[in-house]
Amino acid sequence: MNIIQVKDSGELGVVGADLVIGRIKPLKKPVIGLATGSTPEPLYANLIKKHQAGEISFQNAITFNLDEYVGLAHDDPTSYHYYMDDKLFSGIDLKRENAHVLDGEASNLEKECEQFERLMKDAGQMDLQLLGLGLNGHIGFNEPGTSFDSRTHVVELDEATIEANSRFFESKADVPTKALTMGIGNIMEAKEIFFLVTGAKKAEILKRVVHGEVTEKVPASILQRHPNVTLITDIDV
Ligand code: F6R
Prior knowledge:
The chain is an alpha/beta fold. It is built from seven helices and ten strands. The chain has helices at residues 9-24, 41-52, 80-87, 109-123, 159-165, 184-188, 203-211, and strands at 2-5, 31-34, 62-65, 67-69, 99-100, 128-131, 153-156, 178-181, 193-197, 229-233.
């Protein structure tokens, strides 16, 4: 794993956006995996700035988001549809039809996962996957115990994830208990992964992820086996 040490999340935003631009600019049709949550927010803000400065276009890009809650309307401010529109899509020239976010309102969730798999297959191998880290070691919404071979699927969120994400909701009771997520197998197929982790709270789990046993109990530990991961972090690992 390559490690880029930054001083804080602001610097992660600047460094991360430059790295993303460097990777996708030479590509005719970049396929990019996107994450939500607090960690990538400064990176997205910098991508918007760079786009507005004419340094990068997303005209030909195709994106796939890692995950979405089940049962939230797309215009619900706590949904990942809303987050992506608000934090990135509204500020760049990505074609909306090329921005794929799992539909947590689908009447048939299994079918929605199959459809998402088909779309990813048609787009071809992901050039770049952005990834955050859950306090319990999750990537996407692949909670501890998820098979390393998993594909896009419906999950029951862990108590720890509901607790951690309750900060985005009015109360813990409002956090959905189910979500849709790309599987670990999908994530591992990306050509390259930018693994974004900030905040002292994540120091302990990040050390286990980077130096500990590769085990399904710590989903992100599988990244040790990926040939091209760059960890960008303000934590001394
Ligand atoms: C979000 C996602 C999650 C988050 C993780 C960290 O799309 O896939 O795995 O990356 O929960 O979230 P933050 O960045 O809010 O600490």
